Amino acid sequence: MIQKILDIHIHSKYSRACSKDLELPKIATACLIKGIDIVATGDFTHPAWFEHIKESLIEDSEGIYVLKSQALNSNDQINPKFLALPSGRQIPKTKFILSAEISCIYKHKDKTRRLHLVILAPNIEAVEKFNAELDKRKINRHSDGRPIMGLPAKEILRILLEIDERFLLIPAHAWTPWFSIFGSKSGYDSIEECFEELASHIKAIETGLSSDPPMNRRWSKLDNIVLVSNSDAHSLNNLGREANVFTFENENHINFKEIARIIKTGDRKKFLYTIEFYPEEGKYHYDGHADCKICFAPAETKKHHNICPKCKKELTVGVLNRADKLADRNEKDIPKNKFIPHKYIVPLREIISGVFEVGVASKRVKKEYDAMIKNIGNEFYILLQATDEEILKNISDKNIFSAIKNTRSGRVKINPGYDGVFGKVDTLPKKLKQSGQRALL
């Protein structure tokens, strides 16, 4: 059996507010540094990006692609400036799965709905057919890597199923206020309300950065829904900030059919765990109003009747509040050993930045990060598996070791995110309210 880390929702340089470095060779290199084995292509609906996919990738196994240069055992497309690996270490192949995110804005049941959907495709031919169907409907695929369309989510699912039943549709970041299936601003109160007679085809949802599995599992309507976690990365550095850990019999068993089966069934023998942001760090965890710097827990929002006490405008109701509203049981009542486990991480650059008290993009953080990758291993290995000895002998400050240990055990403090403002994690807190548990600042 072999373990693989998957990040199946990212973007390309053609999506709005995304880095121009998001090109396939650079993505492949960044995945090697992060420890991501299988990554989404993202944005296959965009004409220029889809051409880049077809020009750059070749099918390695059914529905799984690699860079053409890697298929020929050449690393000409891997820029060594982006790679910090010990000399002599064999460079593995980064595998790609065809994916896209689309934005559906439409009227349904007297309410404007705004949903983002992740689509996983079984092969290039299926993508070509789907893109052709969008063209027939006059969808502007050139405008954005994540195209906006007036088609209902159910209609998108119907189109996919008619083309190829192997397509997989997953509601993206399911609780985000503005653009998600359960969002407080424009979502639904159930999967069935959204997809109606096609609801049985929705097997999984993406939790998003501002929620975690325990929050989702408080709602029994999701008991038969698999929870996946992905980065939704808009830059190379954000790849893998959330991810999924699968096992396969061997390399020959890594194909689209098996990945889709594991996701659809939630096979706990093959789907080992998800890798999670601390949800408080997500930028929509709490309620609030960013312009007025108002950040409220749900109880405080209720006291103020959802109104900002400064400007008197309506607060943005966050993910925790929305999850509380739909929940029908307490966390302690979640069935034991029924669901896929999860582990929390704080990205390594953030940990180093917090220890040194400098910016994440500073030269000092980069120098330490590169040295750790070169001497210890990829980022996920460092965060989840590396031994105390491996870490201690390859860092310049022992506080980095303490911060990694605290992150693994949950001994962190967090200023919660709200209304588009990311939360801030303290991985070296002097005191916690309860030993071994994260606490809010």
Write the layout of secondary structure elements.
Elements: E1 2-7, H1 24-34, E2 38-40, H2 47-56, E3 57-61, E4 64-67, H3 68-71, E5 95-97, E6 99-108, E7 111-120, H4 124-136, E8 148-149, H5 153-163, E9 168-171, H6 191-195, E10 204-206, H7 213-217, E11 226-228, E12 243-248, H8 256-265, E13 271-277, E14 287-289, E15 294-296, H9 298-303, H10 319-326, E16 342-345, H11 348-356, H12 363-375, H13 379-384, H14 388-392, H15 398-409, E17 413-415, E18 424-426, E19 439-440
Parallel strand pairs: 1-2, 2-5, 6-8, 10-11, 13-16, 17-19
Antiparallel strand pairs: 1-12, 3-4, 4-5, 6-7, 7-9, 12-13, 14-15, 17-18
Helix pairs in contact: 11-12, 11-15
Helix fraction? Answer: 25-40%
Q: How many angstroms does the end-to-end distance come to?
A: 42 Å
Beta strands, count: 19
Tell me about the largest β-sheet. Answer: 8 strands, mixed
Number of distinct helices: 15
Strand proportion: 15-25%
Q: Which spans have pLDDT < 50 for at least 5 consecutive residues?
A: 79-86
> Which architecture of the largest domain per CATH?
Alpha-Beta Barrel
Shape: globular
Structural class: alpha/beta
CATH level 1 name of the largest domain = Alpha Beta
Global mean pLDDT: 94
CATH topology of the largest domain, which one? Answer: TIM Barrel
Fourth-tier CATH superfamily name of the largest domain: Metal-dependent hydrolases
